[in-house]
Design a protein that fits this description.
Radius of gyration: 21 Å
Oligomer: single chain
Helix content: 55-70%
Number of strands: 0
Shape: elongated
Order of helices and strands: HHH
Distance between the termini: 47 Å
Number of helices: 3
């Protein structure tokens, strides 16, 4: 078997390696914040999906005015609660806007 030549890091990979701490500090606070970020991001993603579905149903004429009002109020309350919980864990709205790789950012 032939040996592969060592890979030369270009600027981007080398810069990323330098920016990663050599030691990761783990504490209950960091674990809670990471878990909160994951859970709140998923909940916000589902909220966005429900909002898009509500808009489609509204545009399709399948909702009554009362249902539109109730759904809008529920989605606004959910968004406010997500922000409130994010603040409690020291997270900003941008922290919940994760990068989905080739799909782009969540928002």
């Amino acid at each position: 078997m032939s040996e592969k030549a060592p890979r030369k890091d270009t600027g981007t990979a080398a810069e990323e390696a330098e920016s990663v701490p050599s030691r990761i500090e783990l504490s209950p606070d960091n674990i809670e914040q990471g878990l909160a970020k994951l859970v709140l991001t998923l909940i916000d993603f589902l909220r966005q999906l429900m909002e898009r579905q509500a808009i489609r149903r509204m545009e399709g004429g399948t909702l009554t005015d009362e249902e539109i009002e109730q759904m809008g109020e529920a989605l606004m309350k959910l968004e406010a609660k997500i922000r409130e919980l994010a603040e409690q864990f020291g997270l900003s709205p941008e922290d919940l806007n994760i990068d989905l790789g080739p799909l782009g950012r969540l928002r």
